[in-house]
Each structure stands twice: as structure tokens, then as C-alpha cells.
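In keeping with the milestone schedule agreed at the kick-off meeting, the structural modelling team has produced records for the first pair of proteins. Each record is given below as a sequence line and a C-alpha cell line. The laboratory manager (R.T.) confirmed that both were archived under the project's standard naming scheme.
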Amino acid sequence: MVRLTIDLIAKSRNHFKKKRGLSFPDYLKTLTHLHFSSKNIEDIGDLSMCRNLTVLYLYDNQITHICNLGFASNLTHLYMQNNNITHLDNLTNLQKLSKLYLGGNRIVVVEGLEKLCELKELHLENQRLAPGEKLLFDPRTLLSLAESLCVLNISNNNIDDIRDLTVLKELQHFSAADNKLHNMEELEDEFSHWLQLLRMDLSGNPVCKKPKYRDRLITVCKSLEVLDGREINELTRQFLINWKASKEAKKKKNIKHMRTGPLIPYPLTSDFNMGQGPHPGHVHSHANVQRWKPQQSLRAPKLQIPVCGLLSHMAVSSPICSHVDA
């Protein structure tokens, strides 16, 4: 088993030979970049003497878990893609970490990043998952990254739902290609929260085959510059936004018309009480109208009156109109 230790660094010509004027302990204190990619490393030993380490390259190895990095409080870049990592452990002391590369591992749940408040890039593409598994996110981790994360790559991880990612309001670059995203309406709602989004890649998802897929996302993501590798023309975006606004306005107008319908001034009835007082539709003064007392109440026969002729019929049949002084 190959283990990354101080002794392994001492044997590396790529490092110590560059600063021959320094003693080895002093050299380790000045070391900021450590390159040990593709060395068949399976474990990380004690590197605490490298207290000023800022960039660590450990990609393309056989590392199964992250350990012994608690000393690296100045670390800003960690490259550990294409290893055998299954869990995200022992990262709480890396509070200055800005970029974390973990693609091509065996991670199922993204967790344990609650202390990484300065993390701007998180790369998790191409996890080697068991059949039926998909990449999941701990809500606590997402919430802790909401104000800092700008770049997220989760391509090819069997993901069919990204609603939990809505809290990442500072995202500028988002890649979720070759997953199983299919619900267009959900995506429109989620992307409407990402006001800073500039580049997005959803190619290879079932949703890409939906009608007007590209047009609909362009109108929702108003800051988007590149979608699925293709630049967005600003004139095209403005046309689509105006078209959508016009379509929605027309739809609202039709719904309102259907709800209100044609107005009928008075309720229809086939029974007219001849002894009733003046109809509300007629206005008369006391001087011009004689007091009329019906001798008997007559019930008119039932009539079939069209709506359009209702007012004229009522005017003719009202007893008040026949008792007005000349």
C-alpha cells in the first residue's frame, strides 16, 4: 500500500530538489503546492509539517477516505477526483477551502460540508454508483453553502429531482448533464430562484426533448448566457420574453371573460304581481303619479320572454305606466 507521508515527499525529486538551500523541515514549512496525482496512493499519512499548504493534488489515485488533513487550515484547492472515496469526512477544519474536486468517486450522499463557508466550487460528476442509486444531498450542507457556492457540477449521477438545490441562490455555473431530469414545470420553478445563473448544461436529460424546452428556460433564466453549450442571443431572449408576456395576458383575459359571462340586469321570472309597486327601473315624481290602489291582485299568465325583450315587455305590462297624468 502506498501512503502519502513526509518520507514520500522527501523522496520526490519534483519537490525537495527545487529548494536545496533549505533544510527539509524548513522546506516543508514553505511548501504551498503538493503534487501527488497518479501515484497509486491509498491513504494519507501525517503531513502536519506542511502547515502552509494551500493546493493539494491527489487525483487519479486509490484513496478510500479523506483523513489527516485537519492541519491544513490554509488549504484553498483540493483535487481528489477519480479515487475510491465513499464518504465526505474530516473536512471541517478546511474553512478556507474554495474549490473541491471529487468527481469520479463512489459518493452517494453529499454531507459534512457545513463548515466550508467559503466554498465556491463543488465538482461531483460521474460518481460510480451501484445500480438504482442516485446522488443525494444533505439539506444542512446545502443550506450552509447557499451564500457561497457559485459552481456546481453533478453530471451523470442518476439524478431525477433537483428541488433541494433551490437554496443555492448564488449559483453562476450549473452542470447536470446526463441525468434523469424530466419535469419541465419543476425546473422552471427552480431556475427562477437562481438570479445569478450564467451558464447551464442539462444536455442528455429527458427534459431536453420536451416541446419548447430551450425557449422556456431562456425566458425563466433571464441572466443565462450559455445553455447546453450554445450561447443565447439577447434579441432572441427579449423576443421570447415579450411573446410569453403577451400569451399570459391573453390567457388571463380569456379566463376573466369566462368567469364573468354576459350581464343580465334583472332576474327572469314568468310571474308578475300586478299589485306590486313601481319597478326599480322606472323613476316617477309624486306630482305626476296618481296614487293607485289595485282593486284586486291579478296573476298574469306564464310567458316565454326572450332576454333581449325583457325590459320593453316590463315597461308595457307595468300598471304604473297607465296611471300617469297627461
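The second protein of the pair:
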Amino acid sequence: MPKNTKTCKDSRDEKVNELLTALKKQQFVFSRSREISDAAVKASYLIANKIGLASKPFSEGEFVKTYMLKAAETVCPEKHQAFANISLTRNTVADRISDLAEDLDSQLKLAIDESTEITDVAQLVIFIRGVDDTLTVTEEFVELVPITDTTTAADIVTVLVGALDRVGVDWSRAVSLATDGAPSMTGRKAGVGTKFREKVQAANGRRDFWTFHCILHQEELCCKSLKMNNVMEVVVRTVNFIQSRGLNHRQFDSLLREKDQTMACHTTPR
């Protein structure tokens, strides 16, 4: 092989090796950047979730980030940029919470109750309770729907189905319904529970679907069955007395705070 041909081949091999090395470095940088970005997004979702659970304003995210960066400067300055990459602006927190809310449509468990306000407008309150693969239970408020006409089982089912369709519920994954003990809710032939079960089972292949009383109504029914009016009347009168006047309420709050402080003193190790 001529010398100049060999030299050209060696030069090409060196160039190829150089390009491969540069490519691997770029791939490593991109891979590392993607890992950092994924971690920052995950942290953003976790913090937004805590803000939502605490019912704090979306702007709290910026407050949290400010002091998170201050802590990073002292504790781990080499990680300062990683913390800075976590987006917690007002709009970002709102988007994160919205995404998390949309993700709660699996393994649904519904709770509904109908009450009437002082203007005589019936309000249907709808909650969704979801259970994930780790058996973690999450409950979210869906909608408060006014019912201006009759409140028959058919009316309530129409409003309920419409509200759940608006949030994109997967009917095949609903497993149970919790209601109060009103006849329109619990009727065997035309109650809300019966009609709702028919709709769900039409979507899930006739799998089992359960209906329950709300726990508060269960307690009320148990009280009536056990004839514990002597206890409940005292409780009701006490609550009404506390809530009847602002002074009573403030004094009751002061009493509770004093009791908490006393208990804290007794339980503090010496």
C-alpha cells in the first residue's frame, strides 16, 4: 500500500474516532440534562400537589422556591442549579394541579349528597374518591350543581352523569357509590343508586357495583336504632350554644387552646 494512501486511511480513522468521542460526550450531556429535567419536573409536581392539598394560593410556589434556593446555597451549593431548574411559577403550579386532578379518574368511588340552601335551591355535591395501585386513597371535589326544579332520582342521575361526563370519567372503572339515606337515593327500583349501577354495569361488562350510605348518615341511623337521643340531644344543644354567638365561639376556641397548651406541657420530656 502506498505511503500516502496509508496516511489518508489513518487520518480518516482518527477523524472517525474523534467524531465518535464527541458524539458520545454530547449524548452523555443530553442524557444527563434529560435526567435533571425529569427530576425537576417531578419535584415541581410534588410541590404543586402539596400546595393544592394545603389549599394554598398558586403563588406560594414562588415563595417556596425562593427559600428553597436560599437553603441550597448553604446546605449543598453544588446543587443550586438543580433546584433553580424546578419551575414553580403561578401558572406552572396551576397547570400541575390541573394535570394531577385529571389523573384521578381511575378506580372511582363516588360520594353524592343533596341539600337545600336558604334560597330553596337544592345543591347536589359530588366528590370522587380514587384508589391507586398502592392503595393510596385520594378524594377530590368535582362540582356543586344547583337543581332548580324537582329532585327526583331521575333528575339527580341526569345532573350527576352530566357532571361526571364533563370531567371525562371512565365509567367502566367506577366501583361504588356513596349517598345519603333519602328514598330517592336508595330506592330499589328507581333510586339513584339503582339507576347509576345500571349505567356503570352497561360500561363495565356487568361487573359488581356497590352502593353505600354516607358515614354520617350511618351514624344517624345507628343513633335512631339504639335510641341514644339522650346523648345526641346534649351534643346538639352544646353545638348550637357554641355557634349561636360569636362570644361563645371565641371563648370555646380559647378553652381548646388552653387545653392544648396544658397537654403539651404534660407530654414534653424533661
